[in-house]
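In response to a reviewer's request, we include the raw inputs and outputs for one of the modeled complexes. The two entities were modeled together in a single run.
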Amino acid sequence: MSLFSGLQTALSGLRAQQMAMDVTSHNIANAGTEGYRRQEIVLAPGTSLTENCAMGSPGTPKIGSGVRVVEVRRMQDEFLDNRIRLVNQQVGSSSTKNSALSEIESSLAEPGASGISSALDSFWNSWQELATSPDQVTAKSSVVAAADDLAVRFQGIYGDLRSAQFQLDSQITNNAKQVNDIAHEIAELNRSISTSANGGYQPNDLIDRRDMLLDDLSKLANIKVSGKSGDELMVSMNGKTFIQGNHVTEVNAVQGGQWTQLRWADDGTAVDPRGGELQGMIDTRDNVIEGYVTKLNAVASQVVTSVNAVYSQGLDSTGHAIGNFFVAGGNASNMQVTPLLESSPGTVATSYMGTAGDNRLAQAICDIKGQKVIGGLSINDAYGALVGQIGSDVGQAKSSTDVNTLSLQQLTTQREGVSGVSLDEEMINTVRFQQAYNACSRVVTVINEMLDTVVNKMGI
Amino acid sequence: MRITLGMTSNLMKSNLFNSGEDVLNAQNVASTGKRIHVPSDDVPGTGRVMQYRSMEADIDQYSRNCDIASSQLTASNAAMNTIVTNMQQIRTLALQASTSTLDDQSRSTILSQIDALNTQIVSAANTQNLGRYIFAGTRSNVAPIAANPVAGPQPYAYYGDSNPFNVQVTAGVSVGTTVNGDSLFNMGGMAMNGTPDLFSAIKATRDAVASGSVSSASNSVTNIDANLNNVIGIRSQVGARLQRVESTKSMLDDSKLRIQTLRSNTEDVDISSAIIDLQTKQNAYQAAIATASKSLQMSLVDYMK
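The model returned the following structure tokens for the whole complex.
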């Protein structure tokens, strides 16, 4: 070992501290960057050299040859990442459900005077008014007007439900496209990362970008990620691997029946996201809202059926049947009063036999209000049950979103603790590396003086 | 545990958003005075409020029904009063005429008085209230008492029907608001089999007075009495029904107040506690903002030279 090797040792120190400073400044520069994982330089003592001057003898000391940079390590906890992705898809699923159902809930206008339950009350009461004054033409016009108002409100809520479904439908199509875009980008990154890894470089910033994309993807669907973080990753959804290395299987949005269906591009099987926004939207569109539509239709068509059943028993003064009050077979989407009564409301019948002052038919229609005609409930109560169900579904979605968001926050905070940049820490590191650099350069100066002594002053 | 800039800022952000949302909700409640804006705010409460609203609408309608029923019954009562009074006068005149010492002048005076009273009774029989003939049963667009096309001892025929007309005054309770002319005037022996109808009795009396026969005059008074008692009996039934309607109406008023209170307790918020809540939430929000501004500024960078 010569003095020159001592210089090399000091030089390795200078280089290492300089690289450490670079890493630190990279961290500080990216302290606020979204998705950035902090990097740590890993230093290790260099391989030690045998001391030449006493070759072969036992107990020969080994002298270290400086410091080497092992790697620049990216601080990441893969278990945390997986857990975060799991909770992320739960947040996505419940928050889409929450926002879609909250909109529907507001459009119900319950409790209040502009909802269907108020219109139902007005309708029954208009028949009461008519039953008390069966000869009044104004009472007859009021009955037809109240029926029209009820029909308009049913159609209004029906329209709101259907348009919510349409909105979800187009959102599903957009999200499917987003899945494809993200998948392609991940595949590109896979290729770049594996190329770099094979070349011996760890492309930390590319891996950061890929992790961010995986987080975005996990919000859309419940994905499983497998593979080495420093190399290619495989991403699968419900058992189907759709991103593998550079290869992507796309999600196609096809028009199947009433709504858009998602199918895999390679074999046409159905895509089952099992979670995430896609799952939330599909479930809300196909099951939850469809269920509301069915129940709403049941209430409306029960009104039509029950009123018609009583009304059509009536005969006019010449003995002919007076027909129906509502157009038969109507439900929430198309309920309406028969055109005949619409154009001449003065012909609304109050009697089974066409007698002007007889109110028994009108009274029988009033009695429908209290009859338990839908599954053991009256019409008003059945509608109230639907409102209650919508309210509790919204409440459930909201609290589910809140719980999951809180959980996500806690996990994200934990991840920040592992991967986030702490300015205080980086500041201390700058001091550390600067001092070390100063010391190493001092060593160079000292060795230089020693060399100077050897070269210029020895043996003169 | 490592504390990073990201952690602090995320935490501050979410706390500020949560506080802000609380303030917004408290403002909404305080300014509208309503506790429930959408069903999910309180699902069972919404169900109750909907039911209370429905009950209030029912009560309003029943109240109106009571008013109309009262009007019909009162009109019937008034008409029957006229009929009773007139019949009593006819009776008096008939008895007066049945003394044998009646000259033609007096006789013809009495006859014309009886005719006048009879005409009044007929017009009372055809009373209309709110556009309906009140004694015609459900054939209320037709005058019930009109001249009998068939000549004979019955001067008038009944053109109404015998159907009842019921008005629902409260849940499950109906009250008949009409008196059918055939029962009232005993047309065709409807009320008292074998006794002639009221108008036939009057005619018989008139004829008896005109003929000067004392015995037939006093006999015919018997039939007038029978009809008079019939009308008086029906009138007291109507009076009882009127009382029922009126007491139902005051019960409805009480119920309405009670239900409005129940609804308000569920749906409305006590304004003073809403304001206090708003103030509390605003204070919490201010504290959160102040804390955020203080803690976000601290860092080692400030202290290193």
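As requested, we also summarize the result in words. Chain A touches chain B through 56 residues (CB under 8 Å). The longest strand of chain A covers residues 67-74.
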